[in-house]
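During the reporting period the student researcher (J.K.) took over the structure-prediction task from the postdoctoral fellow and processed the backlog of single-chain submissions. One of the processed entries is reproduced below for the supervisory committee.
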Amino acid sequence: MATKLQVPDGILDPIRKDVFEGKFTLSLPRCELRQCGTETPLTLSGAGFVDQGADGGLTLRMFVTEKYDVREGMNRLGFGALTSGVLIPTSAYYDISGRAQNFATWRAEHQSVDPSFGVGTEIRVSLSHMDKVDTLSKPAALKVKQWFIPGEFKLPWHVVTRTERSLSRDRFESGDDEFAWVIKKSDGGMDVQFTVKNGQELEPHATRFMQALEMLVGRSLRPLLTSTVSGNERLTRVHRRPMPERSSLVPPVELGHFEPGDAHRFLSCCLHRAERPPTMGDQLLLLYRFWWRILRSYQSDIENSSLVLSVAIEGVLQALFLSEHDADAEFCRLVGAAEPAIERLDIDERVRSSLFRSLDHSIAPKPQEAMRRLREQCVLADAHIKAWGELRHKGAHGAMLEDDLEKYQNHLDRYHCCLDLFYRILFTAVGYRGGSIDYSTRGWPPSTFPPGDEVKVASPPSAVAESKSA
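J.K. obtained the following structure tokens:
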């Protein structure tokens, strides 16, 4: 029987409306700034007020009311000596804490300050976030993290919410013995919830879940509010409003239908295969960072994005797939036999060193060798290797696109063939098997991974359920 997961009400609701509408304000009758990175920190206190600007930014204004050494304050608050080789020393940042009128505790760590000295001292801080800390009456049974993400993104919504007046297919949820997740449509955005079980810590699993979700939907997901429940503490974070997100990639699996099995399976694989011991630690972080570079460049410049994609593929192959066995053994033997002859040559030492460096580079394993091995394992096809070579060569040597519609289309075909290559090595790294989209073929037909795999993988047990809401 399917396990029903409930999005807890009230975690984000008390302040969600104000933050979403850009009307968030916070009065801190007693506020304190404490300098970071020093054994003798400067501490300033006074009355503070947090206001959300029209652009969604959070600004703290604090008026120092307690007496302090103004000369020392001016020196430490930005007019002190700089440290050679350090752009911004740790001592330039401050931790902020304060109590609101309802006695709630708020804090923000590692913030930059902008002081103003006159009749009194005014401190302005452009906050990256502000945290509210609540103590629960009893420890929570599970560790949960929830995000409110403004805007919409596509998912195979498959769980129906039933009310007295309507039915709405507005939830995406699943789980296993270790993790559970629920994503629900809400006014103005999406509620995302992630739960860890069996006594595990939330991190790094919560961060990995969001990384996997971003790669799944093909876009950056920046929250407006975050809530973390662990033990007897609940931390609610108000973020600076994210800028509207314009960059997006086509997703690795189909998201446009009501069958959620592939999407849930992809998230589960990313969570359970995030690490690759013993040589590689967090491989999901590495994959995400290369994916992020591809995303940021995708809609900015078609020529630069092609180079970024080809280099990202090379970086993943070198980090996760290349081995010394990919080197050409016969060529390595010939180079080894030639080295004594080069040592005997009567040439300048700089030339000799350059020759040895060139030979060392020539015998090192190449990404093409890893691709050929993956082709033999039916992960890639010849078309992927050819497209990558052409895209990499043109991008690295500054070739420009010609003003020709057919050549432009061919370039786009190569780009998406290489994006398909990236997704296939991503699937291989995390152990994903299931439905996919073949971006190496025009029309982008549905496919499976591994290609031609006819194995029918069952949907997660909680992938389809019905939830009732009053």
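The committee noted the following: DSSP finds eleven helices and 20 strands in the chain.
J.K. will present the remaining backlog at the next meeting.
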